[in-house]
Write a structure and sequence with these properties.
The chain is mainly alpha-helical. Helix content is 53%, strand content 7%. It is flat, with a radius of gyration of 13 Å. Pfam families: Cofilin_ADF.
């Protein structure tokens, strides 16, 4: 799961995004990623819903 709040400055968001992309490339075998921008998106229920939705695709 990645977390970058909507309130973060654009420069910080860009740096975080590029760093997270590099991390994802190194995580061989991980197939699902969740991105959250506020606490409601990081809740257990929201994460489960997103994971289940990707299972159906």
């Amino acid at each position: 799961m990645s977390w970058c709040p909507d309130t973060a400055k654009v420069k910080k968001k860009m740096l975080y995004s590029s760093s997270f992309d590099a991390l994802k490339k190194s995580l061989v075998g991980v197939q699902k990623y969740i991105q959250a921008t506020d606490l409601s998106e990081a809740s257990e229920e929201a994460v489960e819903e997103k994971l289940r939705a990707t299972d159906r695709n």
